[in-house]
Amino acid sequence: MPSVVVLWGILSVYQNPVPHTEPSAPQHLTIAVLSSSSLTAEWVEPADDGGDAAITYTITLQGGPGATTRTVSSLRTTFTGLEAPNTYTVTAAAVNRAGTSPTVEETILHTSGSCFCVPFLPTQHPLHPLI
Fold first, then answer.
1. Sheet containing 38-44: which strands, arranged edge to edge?
2. What are the φ and ψ backbone dihedral angles of 97, each rounded to 5 degrees?
3. Domain spanning 20-120: which superfamily?
4. pLDDT single digits (tens) 82-106
5. pTM
6. How far apart are CA 5 and CA 93, in angstroms?
7. Could you give the CA distance from residue 115 to residue 82 in angstroms, rounded to a whole number?
8. Would the N or C end of the chain have less CB density within 10 A of its end CB?
């Protein structure tokens, strides 16, 4: 429904903005080992930004001595100071002004310079309960 605004004696009609929704989950999360003490997580933009292109990503690394969470605007982040051998899990979520997407995660068994990666479906994916 259009809205009418009178500002300094000028009549203006404008459309109310379409409300934003939460974005879908980031796609194709992958982990690459850079060295015995670092890894990089990369992902692809969500299929649906929820009508709000201002998206950031909340990325959490769990494993080793604890958890590290960061907010980034790029499609890649690097974690350093890791210990091998250890199992690390990276969780990613897209965030816009309407909220946070479902998460995706990938787990890596990090040995000295090599890895075994296990991809997971988004936690709210329709097939998730079947796996």
1. 27-35, 38-44, 76-80
2. -65, -20
3. Immunoglobulins (2.60.40.10)
4. 888 889 999 999 999 999 999 999 9
5. 0.72
6. 38
7. 13
8. N
SS3 call for 130:
helix
Q: Which pLDDT belongs to residue 112?
A: 64
Q: Is the dihedral of CA 72, 77, 80, 85 positive or negative?
A: positive
Mean pLDDT, rounded, for 40-63:
95
Q: How far apart are CA 75 and CA 57, in angstroms?
A: 8
pLDDT tens, residue by residue, 68-85: 999 999 999 999 998 888
**E strands of 8-114, at which residues?**
10-15, 27-35, 38-44, 56-63, 66-72, 76-80, 86-96, 99-100, 104-110
Alpha-carbon distance of 104 to 101, in angstroms, equals 9
Report angle CA 11, 16, 21 to the nearest 5 degrees.
165
**pLDDT, tens digit (0-9, with 9 covering 90-100), for 26-38:** 999 999 988 888 9
Structure-block tokens of residue 88: 């690390």
Domain ranges of the chain: 20-120
Output the CA torsion sign for 6, 8, 9, 11: negative
